[in-house]
Amino acid sequence: MNTYNEQTDILIVGGGTAGTVAAIQAGRAGVATTLVEMGSQLGGTTTSGGVNFPGYFHAWGKLQVAGIGWELVKETRELSHEPLPPVENAEPRRPGNYIPVHAGIYAALAEEKAVQAGVSIHYHEIVTGIERVGERWLVHCVGKNTQRNIQAQEVIDCTGDADVVGMLGLAREKAEKCQPGTLEFILGGYDPNRFDPDQVQAAYEKALQDGRLRPGDCAGMDSKSFMHFLHAHGRNQQHILGADSSTSASQSAANIAGRQSLLRLLRFIQTLPGGERVTIERMSALTAIRETYRIVGESRATCEAYLAGYQYPDAIGYSAFFVDLHTEEGGKKEFLQPGTLPTIPFGALIPKGSRHILVAGRTLSSDRLANAGMRLQPFCMAMGQAAGAAAVLAIQHGIASRDVDIRELKQLLRKHGAIVPGA
């Protein structure tokens, strides 16, 4: 076992959607930054999770989320020789559009920008413990034949499950039954227009009855119609019931369940006239998870405030997605009224009663329905940039990140291209 002892100013745990942006922000602001990521690349849900269509950056015809996350998305599209899609969604209830990105290019570009910003990246490592030693955190990490002890002044928990917050015994909450997960995949080798819809639907219902297909295998916008699944080529049309990423055992179970579901679907479609040559064109490395823990923070974002577009005094960014809660029965959607633009409070990134630690991403302090809108990638990117900037100011002023001046935080975010509510 190789043991390494390291000192840094800011330690970011988790290099997913929020953590990647937090690290780049902190590094660009000139503060020593270390990033620990249990996987093999940056980007999290956008890359390894296969949800490579983040949205919405625009709302009601205007760019509302910019900064480092938007920079990554734009440059990924440029390197892919793809123009940006239309700003507005064809469906009036949806204020913006998804922006598909090449997951591999996004991961490589994010890594390049982090390295250029001076971020020290440690892949294939997880945090196993954290303690306060004097004025600094001492964080213990482990990887293959590697033990690492990192001293840091500020920690940002971007694990997606509030793992570090939990290790510290700070309050978290979790729904009794979390939203289903989804293994992202694309099926090819068939033309959906050549299927007989009535024949397909009858075969689908029979397969559900005899167990060849199971509840959740087809769970998209209209889980009662398998033709919708075929027209979408399977993309984002599956639910893994009970999916949970809060432990390695539960994530393993979700991954196995996702791939077994895909095999059931593949074998079923091959029995349909016109589907004999169906293939898997793309399959993600892991089942993407929508929900586990949320912290109990110094403030709490609520669905009522979300739908009303409440402007929090300490808002560090906008959200723009509709409330999108997935359930075993299908889901619950509540759409924003035209022109409504919810905000994200900085206090929701601060674990209640804590000092020198922030969270960013879907684990922000919120009720379930507000979280179902705020958990989308652009808003997690905005949270990551805000957390990274707040940690920088804490280092520069010798204070805790929770105590930074909100006006100064907004100024630093704007300097780095972010769009921030208020003056």
Characterize the main sheet: 5 strands, parallel
Return the CATH architecture of the largest domain.
3-Layer(bba) Sandwich
Task: Tell me the strand percentage band.
Answer: 15-25%
What number of domains? 2
CA gyration radius, whole angstroms: 21 Å
Calculate the terminal CA-CA distance, rounded to whole Å: 52 Å
Order of helices and strands: EEHEEEHHEEEEEHEEHHHEEHEEEEEHHH
The spatial strand order of the largest sheet comes to: 6-3-2-10-19
CATH class annotation of the largest domain: Alpha Beta
Structure summary, number of beta strands: 19
Characterize the structure shown.
- With 423 residues, the chain is α/β, with parallel strands linked by helices.
- The protein has 2 domains: 2-177 and 291-415, 3-Layer(bba) Sandwich (FAD/NAD(P)-binding domain), CATH 3.50.50; 185-283, no CATH class.
- 31% of the residues lie in helices and 20% in strands.
- The chain has 11 helices and 19 strands.
- It has helices spanning 17-28, 67-79, 103-116, 163-167, 197-210, 226-231, 248-269, 303-308, 368-374, 377-397, 406-415, and strands at residues 2-7, 10-13, 33-37, 58-59, 62-63, 120-123, 125-133, 136-143, 146-152, 154-157, 172-174, 185-188, 279-283, 293-295, 315-318, 323-327, 330-334, 343-345, 357-359.
- The strands form 7 sheets. Strands 6-3-2-10-19 form a 5-stranded parallel beta sheet. A 4-stranded mixed beta sheet has the order 1-9-8-7, with no helix packed on it. A two-stranded antiparallel sheet has the order 4-5.
- Helix 1 (17-28) packs parallel to helix 3, helix 2 packs across helix 10 and helix 10 (377-397) crosses helix 11.
